[in-house]
Amino acid sequence: MSLRLGDSAPNFKAATTQGEIDFYDWAGDNWVVFYSHPADFTPVCTTELGRTAALKEEFAKRGVKPIALSVDPLTDHHEWIKDIEETQEVKMNFPVIADHDRKVAELYDMIHPNATTKVTVRSVFVIDPNKKVRLTLTYPPSTGRNFHEILRVIDSLQLTDNYSVATPVDWEHGQDVVISPSIADADIPAKFPKGHTKIKPYLRTTPQPNID
């Protein structure tokens, strides 16, 4: 059965390019971006792993740890990393899991028979510090993942976890947000002292509350 939003992310132990890990211990109290790629030495994923490494500071300031996976062996991973670092002009700074027996891929439903029975599909999971799945994405082989969107969603999740708001279409950090319908009009001034705009009874906006 595939993982759904709110499900607990399964724990596992695995060999990675940075040594053996217990996933829960490795994640600690951080958010996690966990994604799979179909195979080593593939062009699109070469650019994706390079971009992940380049975004180290962006992930760190959000308390996020990235980790990747393929079913290729660790020796291939280490050789591929040389290509990634050369072509993408980065230093790899996060682990890549060697899931040769496909145990982790099967735990996370990364094997889709309609796509292929031999390699993982290109899945993305955002997992919160409570080890709950908060976002799932699956990309086709021909389309590179949008890490700007992944960071945008993490910004939204971290904001909306702490305030009674939601983020509207195309929202970016720093823009106005939507006040939760559960908040009565009379309670808005105390909760949102920056002010608000009432567009409809159910559609009320306020400046993003967690920035000055």
What is shown here, in short?
The protein has 212 residues and is an alpha+beta fold. The protein contains seven helices and eleven strands. It has two domains: 13-146, Glutaredoxin (3-Layer(aba) Sandwich), CATH 3.40.30.10; 163-206, no CATH class.
Walk me through this protein's architecture.
With 212 residues, the protein is of the alpha+beta class. It folds into two domains: 13-146, Glutaredoxin (3-Layer(aba) Sandwich); 163-206, no CATH class. Helix content is 30%, strand content 24%. The chain contains seven helices and eleven strands. The protein has helices at 23-27, 43-54, 56-61, 74-88, 103-107, 147-162, 188-191; strands spanning 13-16, 19-22, 31-36, 64-70, 96-98, 122-127, 133-139, 165-166, 177-179, 197-200, 203-206. A five-stranded mixed beta sheet has the order 5-4-3-6-7. A hairpin with a 5-residue loop joins strand 6 (122-127) and strand 7. Helix 2 packs across helix 4 (74-88). The mean pLDDT is 94.
Strand content: 15-25%
The largest β sheet comes out as: 5 strands, mixed
| Poorly predicted runs | none
CATH homologous superfamily title of the largest domain = Glutaredoxin
CATH class of the largest domain: Alpha Beta
Could you tell me the number of beta strands?
11
Number of domains: 2
Q: Assign the CATH architecture of the largest domain.
A: 3-Layer(aba) Sandwich
Q: Give the strand order of the largest sheet, numbering strands 1, 2, ... along the chain.
A: 5-4-3-6-7
Please describe the structure with a list of short key phrases separated by commas or semicolons:
212 residues, alpha+beta, Glutaredoxin, 2 domains, four-stranded antiparallel β-sheet, 7 helices, 11 strands
